[in-house]
Amino acid sequence: MLYAILRRFGQMLFVMFGISVIVFLIFFATPGADPAARIAGRNASPEVLAAVRHSFGFDQPLYVQYTRMMEKIFVTGDLTSFVNRGWKVVPAVMDSIPVTLSLVFGAAVLWVVVSIIIGIVAAATRDSWLDKLLMALGLLGISMPVYWLGEVMNLITQSRHHDKWVFSWVPPLGYKNFSDDPKGWFLTLVIPWITLAILYIGIYGRVLRAAIIESMQEDYIRTARAKGLSETRILFRHALRTSLIAFVTLFGLDFGALVGGSALLTEVVFGLHGIGKLTYDALQNLDLPMIMATVMYASMFVVVANAVVDFVYILLDPRLRTS
Amino acid sequence: MILSVRDLKVSFRTHDGPVRAIDGVSFDLEESEILGVVGESGSGKTVSLLAVMGLITDPNATIEGSIRYKGRELVGLPPRELRRLRGNEIAMIFQDPMTALTPVYTIGWQIAEQIRVHRGVSKAKAMERVEELLAEVNFPNPHEAMSRYPHQLSGGMRQRAVIAMALSCDPALLVADEPTTALDVTVQAGILDLVRRLRAKHRSAVVLITHDMGVVSELADRVMVMYAGRVVERGTRTELFSDPRHPYTSALLGSIPPLTGQKPRRLPAIPGSPPSLLRLPQGCAFGPRCPVRYGPCEAGKPGLGKDAHAAACFRVAQA
Amino acid sequence: MIDIDRPILETRSLAKRFSIGTRFSAEGRRTIHAVDNVSLIVRRGETVGLVGESGCGKSTLARCLVRLYDITDGKLLFEGDDITSKSLSELRPLRRRLQMVFQDPSASLNPRRRVGDLVAEPLRIHGRLSSPEITARVAELFELVGLLPDHVMRYPHEFSGGQRQRVGIARAIALNPDLVVLDEPVSALDVSVQAQIVNLLADLQEKLKLTYIFIAHDLSVVRQVSTRIAVMYLGSIVEEGPAEEVFATPVHPYSQALISAVPVVETTPSGTRKRIILTGDVPSPLKPPLGCRFHPRCPIAVDRCRSERPELKEHRPGRKVACHFPTLS
Fold it and tell me: What confidence category does residue A33 fall into, taking pLDDT thresholds of 50, 70 and 90?
C-alpha cells in the first residue's frame, strides 16, 4: 500500500516535470511570444528591451530560467506574472481553486446521483417508453453546449423570469466564499451546477445503461436467476457493481479534466473566477508564469484523480487486487 | 415422480422467421434418478432444460406444453412462485465455471446469499452451512475457501463451488448443463465422482445435459438422445449403448474414436452437419444424413411411441 | 536421396519462459515456465500427438515449433537446420513449409472476406502464381478438403463450424507444406462433424505426404490421429511412445491417471474401469515444484522425487518416460 502511494507520487512528479518542460519549451519556441517585447510594450527601444530582458532574466540560458521558475513556484512561491509584476502567481492559483472545486464537486455529486438513477431505471425498463424517453432526454442534454445552455439559464433566471417567484431566489452572478456566506455560496452555485451537470448526466446515464444491459447478459446473471433471486436483487447486487467500472473510468477522466480547468466555459458564463478562467486569461496574455502555475496544478490534479480512480477500481473489482 | 414433461414446445420469433427450438419433448424423472440428455449443438437439449427452470427470459419465446414438478404445473406459474422453487427445490449447474460466478463477491458470500434468500436464516448461520457444503464437495480448506473470490480458484474448484451452491438448499431436482465440458479430464473425473456420491447421499434427481457419450455412460440411469429439437431415442443406459436403435444414435456412437483396441483406419463419420432450425428438412430431420432413409422418411416426422426403449424412426417401427 | 529417418523437426532442451509484471509491480518481475526442457523428434510422415491438460504448455510448444513465439532456450532444428534464432526474413521461405491450423475456425478467418480470397491469400503472398493459376489452385484445394466449387464466393459466417475448419485446413495446405501443426482443430466441433475432419486430416496426410503435430484435449481423438504421443505435464514431456502402446500401457503415473480419467461408453451395467483420481490442482508454472514436477500429486512419490528431477529417458525400445520408478501396470 505504502509502495503504491510512493509509486503514485513518483509518477506525479515525473508527469509534472515532463509537462512543465514541454510547456516551457513550447512557450519559447512560439513565434511572437518574446516575453520581453510584451513586457516592454509596443515601440520599445532596443535598450529598454535589453534592460527588460536582463531584469527578468531572459538573457540567461533556458535551463537556468526553467530552474529559477520552478524554484519560484515550488520553493519560494513568489513567482510573479509577466503582465503585472505585483501579481503573485501562486496565491492567484490558490484563490481560484476553491471556486473551481466548488463548481465541479457540486456538479459531480449532482450528475453522479442523477445519472445512476437514470441508468438503472432505463436499464430496468429496457425498451419501454420510459427507457426511450430517458435516453432521448439524455441525448438532448449531451447536445446542448454549455455556453448556450448557460446563457439561456442566465436569461431565464437573471433577467426575463427573475421577478417570478420560481427564480427570485437566484442571486446575481459571481462567487461567494463558503466560509463567509454558506447560503450565498450554495445559491450562487445552484444554476451553474445544474448547467454543468446536464451534459454529463446525459453521457453517464447512457453509459451506465449500456453497461448494465451488457452485464445482464453475463453467465453469472443466469446463475443468479437460477438461484431464485429477485430481479431487483440481481440488478443491484450482481449487475450494477461490475457496470460501475466503466462509469468510474469515465468519471476519473472527466473530473480530473474539469478540476484542471476544463470547466472554463461554465466559469465564464457564470462569472466565476476559477482555474479555467485564470488559465484562459493567462494564455491570452502569453503570461508564462501563470500558464506554468495553472498547468502544474492541473497535471497534479489529473494524476491524483487517476490514483483515486484506481483505488475505486480495486474496491469494485477484487480481480485487480494482488494477493 | 419428480418431474413430468409433456409435449413441450419452445419457439422463438427471430428476424429470419420463427424457430422451433423444441418440438414436442416428453420425459419423466423419478426420485434420485439420473437422466442423461445427449445431443449436438441445436438439438435443443439446453433450451428444454432452461424451460424447466423457467429461465427462458427472451420476450420473443413462446412455451407450450406441460412441465409438472411434483405434480405442480410450472408452465404459466407466476415469476414469484417460480423463484421460490428455483435454487431451492430445483437447482442448476452450468457449463462454464469461469463465468458462472459473479466476479466481485466471495464464494462464501454467493453461496450464503442463496441460503439466506430461501431459508431466511442469519448471515452467520448461512456461513456455517456454506462451510459444511464446501467440505462436502471436497474443498481442502473450506473455511479459508469461503473468503476466496472466483478468480482465485482453479476451474475445477470453481465448479465444485457451483455444485456446493446448487446443493445448498437440498434440491429435489438438479439440472446440470454440460457440467464438465469446460474442465480437464482428470478434473472431470473428480467432479463425476462427486456427483455420483452426492446423488446417493441427497437422493436428488439429476438431469445431465452433455454431448459426451462417455460422461452419460458413466453417470446416467436413463438416456434421452435429442436431434433438431426432438427426442429421437430413449432408454436405459444399457439399452441405449448396447442396442442403439435410431440410426443417429448408432452413428453417433460409431463416430467416437475408441480409446482401446484396434484403431479403425477411418472413423465412420456422419455426413453433413446438424440442420439449421430455420431450415429443417421435410419429414425426419435426420433424413438427409441418414444411411437407411427411404420413402416414408421424407413424408412425415416419425413419432417416438410409448415403449420404455423407443426410437423415433420409421425403419424401427417397420421392423 | 532423402534420408527417411532424418527428423523433419527436432527440439533440443527447448524452453519458453514468459515474463509478467515489471520491476515496479507489487510482486516484481516474475517468470512463467511455460515450456521447459523439451527434446522431441518429429519424423517425416508421422503424426505426433501432444496431450496434457490446460496449462501444460502444449499450445505454447506448438507455437514455438512454428516460431510464432521466440524460443528462450535450447534449439529448434528444421531438417537439421538450426532455426532457433533465425530472423523473420530468414524464416520466410520456411513459413511455406511449416503451417498451423487453429482451434476456432471462426476466429481465425476474417469475417469480411470471401473464403475463396482467404484460401488464395497465402498463394498471393508466397507463390509466384498468376491470377488464373491461383483460381485453379483454390478450386483444387476446395475439392481436396471436401468443399463445393461454388463455396468460394461465400463468407465464413455462411458456413457451419465443420466447413469453416475445412477452409482453415485448405489455407494451411495451400502452399504444399511439409509440416502442419494442428492446435485443437476439432475441439469446437460437434461429435458427428469431428469424425469427418479427423478422416479428412488422415486422407490429406496420405495424399500430400504431410507430417502432423496434433494437439487436442480429447484423448481418444489424439489416439486415433497420432502415430506417436507425447504426454506433457507442467511444461515438460513426461512420457513418449507409439500412440496405441502408450494408451494401452501408460508408464508414468500421470499418464496413467490421465488415461484412466477418460469416460468411455460402457455397455455393461456396472463395468466401471479402475480410475485414478488425482488430488489437488496443477501447480502454478510461476513456481513449479522442485524435483519431479508431478510429485505433489503423485500417488507413488518418495523423497527422491521431491529433490531429484527425473530425465526423459528410454524405458523400453521406443518408449520414453520421465519417472524414477517407471512401473508397468
Answer: low
pLDDT of residue C1: 41
pTM, two decimal places: 0.82
pLDDT 10s digits, C192-204: 888 988 999 999 8
> How high is the pLDDT of residue C22?
65
Model confidence at A300: pLDDT above 80:
yes
> Is the pLDDT at C4 greater than 80, yes or no?
no
Cβ–Cβ below 8 Å for C24 and A7: yes
Work out the minimum CA distance from A319 to partner chain B, whole angstroms.
Answer: 6
Q: Which is more confidently placed, A158 or A323? A: A158
Q: Given C221, C267, C272, which is nearest B241 (Cβ)?
A: C267
Subunit partners of chain B (3 or more CB pairs within 8 A): A, C
Please give the order of strands across the beta sheet that includes C211-215: C98-101, C179-183, C211-215, C47-51, C228-233, C236-242, C319-321, C313-316
Shortest CA distance to B89 belongs to which of B210, B207, B174? B174
Measured distance CA(B217)–CA(B198) in Å, rounded: 18
A258 touching chain B per CB within 8 A: no
- Do you know the residue count of chain B? 319
Using the beta-carbon criterion (under 8 Å), do C161 and B242 form an inter-chain contact? no
Residues 201-240 of B with CB under 8 A from C: 211-215, 217-218, 237-238
pLDDT above 70: residue C5: no
Question: What's the gap in Å between the CA of B249 and the closest CA on chain C?
Answer: 10
Decide: helix, strand or coil at residue A87.
coil
Strand partners, C81: C78
Which chain B residues touch A241 with a CB distance below 8 Å?
A: 104
Whole-angstrom Cα distance, residue C101 to residue C212?
Answer: 11
Residue type, position B70, single letter: K
ipTM exceeding the 0.95 mark: no
Distance between first and last Cα of chain C:
43
Please enumerate in sequence order all residues whose Cβ is within 8 A of that of B245, keeping only pairs 6 or more positions apart, or say none. Answer: B233, B235, B309, B310, B311, B313, B316
Integer angstrom CA distances of residue C135 from A75, A162, C170, C204: 75, 78, 13, 20
A and C: number of Cβ contacts within 8 A: 6
Burial (0-12, 13-18, 19+ Cβ within 10 Å), A292: buried
Query: Is the Cβ pair A225, B84 closer than 8 Å?
Result: no
Write the pLDDT tens digit of every residue in B245-301: 899 999 988 888 888 888 888 888 888 888 888 888 888 888 888 888 888 888 888
**Cα–Cα dist C43/C41, whole Å:** 6
Reported as type and span, the H/E element at residue B210 is strand B205-210
| Confidence band for C175, pLDDT divided at 50, 70 and 90 | confident
Q: What's CA C209's distance to the chain center, in Å? A: 18
Query: Which residue in B95, B267, B278, B289 has the most chain C C-beta atoms within 10 A of its own C-beta, making it the best mutation to test that interface?
Result: B267
